[in-house]
Amino acid sequence: MNFENFDMQDCMIITKAVKSRSAENVEKVIASLLSHGHDITQHLCTPDQQGYSALHYAVLYKDLAMVKRLLMHADKRCINLESHDRSTALLLLCRNCSASDLEEEILASLLHAGANPNLPGKDPFSLPLLCALERRWWRGAELMLDAGADATATDSEHNKRPATFFARDNVEILMKLLSGGCDCPDLYDWIISRSLTDAQLKTIFPHILSHPGINKLDVLRGAVWVSYHESAVYILEHCEFCTMYQYTHIISDILKLNNGINWADKNKYITALMKNIFMSKLDKNDLLTSLFLQCARCCWMNKVEDCCGSCDVNVEQIWINLEHILRLAEHNGLPIEKWRLSGRLPITQWEWLGIDHNVLNLVLYETTLCSVPLVLKLLPLMKQDGCRLTVSSAAAFLCSRCIRRLSLSLQKTDVDIQAIVHSPESPYRVLLSELTRNCCEEGRCWFRSPMMTGLCRRGIEFGCHFRVLMLLHLGVHELFLKIRQEKISWNIETEITRAPAGSRRLVFSIVHRYAPRWKLRTRCRDEVRRPWKYRNRPENVVASKLNQMAPLRSLKELCRLSIRASLGHCRIEEKTEGLRDVLPAPLREYLYFRHDFLIFPRITQLPI
Predict the structure, then answer these.
(1) How far from 519 is each of 456, 466, 510, 548, 579, CA to CA, in Å?
(2) For residue 607, which of 394, 507, 508, 539 sits 20 to 30 Å off, Cα-Cα?
(3) 7 pLDDT exceeds 90?
(4) What is the CATH classification number for the domain harbouring 161?
(5) Which pTM was predicted?
(6) CB 456 within 8 A of CB 468
(7) CA distances (Å), 143 to each of 67, 88, 105, 176, in order?
(8) d(Cα 427, Cα 371) in Å, to the nearest integer?
(9) DSSP notation for 430-467
(10) pLDDT tens for each residue of 573-593
(11) Range of 484's domain?
(12) Where is the SOCS box domain (predicted)?
């Protein structure tokens, strides 16, 4: 086309000159139009059949000089003109960018002249900022954000993904987007995949944790899982958590034994957790108790039956962490003796048993075979802080995982129960002796109380062999049948246990052999217990079952049970001090605590 003599009325003439890709032609056309008094801006705003203007083509050709020349005569209407596919000149630049210096200058020129980075506006198919981010043109994205690009905008071409999705490889841009209000729903996935380093994550946290769409619990747990400890500690120090459920997961994830976190880092976590707890609006007593109990857990097995007392845990290090918790609690004005439980902690059997709710009893209730040495270290410290061992404390221990494990071991061979119970150095024996030390101080034997009687009765009902055996040996000796109301009448039970058949025989054997007085008696006159005409009474039905299930007692056993029935078994060495030189040696061995736990018959050895 001849640009020397052209039709001055052709509104497309500048566009045609640009498409010729000759700066000389563009200059000739503009100069000629100006000399004849034509409006250059009107020519620049006239699109071709595709809707592209002269500026669109100049940007497509990435001709900086031509772009600058056109911008001298363009207004914002020309600069932000949308083509038929809703592309502005700025969008064309970003969709075809290669992050070159030339493109940066073109972009800067467009923005300086008034290009709007947020066009197209309503329901856009594609946006300049997202195109630049997708192509990792970081400098271009930065310039557009500085020029007012909406960090929260999304488009159809990029599947409505937020801008942060494309910016994870550039922390500076990511922080700008977050500061602009952009969501970051992919943060957890980035952490788990380690797409961001610990240092980078900690850098962006001040800009992201305040976003309502961020699940702080998931982010924290993810950081702990990939060992991003600095980031996790930052969250604990700066974020609040609103529910006990959240704290339960946090404490468990951080302090469980086999999670790969070393002891030094756990100590840092404890400091951060304590700071968070005292910032929280939740009940601090429950939070501190949960933290203390989780930290005191010495067994990494999830199930009671899996623990055999040899988990090889560093008790000394756990002790250091527990002392750290107590020091921080006292420093914040809430020493352990002031902890008051609200009753919202999951304590399964306590309501029925009437056990007092306090930290000491909780520790005893959570005791496992592995944690007995730690509990022995804790008792003097807790007593020094004002905690007192009571009948509730003994009951809590007798319901503990430790006792449940020993009960299971009666029928298995993987735990050396004789070593645990008989050995003079056994921490279990020392702990039990310590727990019963205060018995009878106020006159009444703990093991004749309704709490212990009820605990023994419940143990019989559910087949808790070792617990029943312990309670009978420790002095429980009055066990009554339950009276149940059935519709319009009262019925006394004749089935004393719900245990399966094999376990039932072992329960019957233990009860028959070691119960000091009448077994599971009802409150009735003695003359109706045995005569034949009363054979169908519930107490005689039960007695008949027990006699069929268990071996006869020896004379030594009968003597021992008679003495224990009179004195109660707790502190029996003190109570029988004058009998030591009188009793025959074999009976003396059976009488005292250290020889109380015999070798029990296996289920296969019991009569059917």
Answers:
(1) 12, 17, 11, 14, 27
(2) 539
(3) no
(4) 1.25.40.20
(5) 0.75
(6) yes
(7) 18, 17, 11, 11
(8) 10
(9) HHHHHHTTTTTTTSS-GGGSHHHHHHHHHHHHHT-HHH
(10) 555 556 666 666 655 555 554
(11) 451-608
(12) 541-591
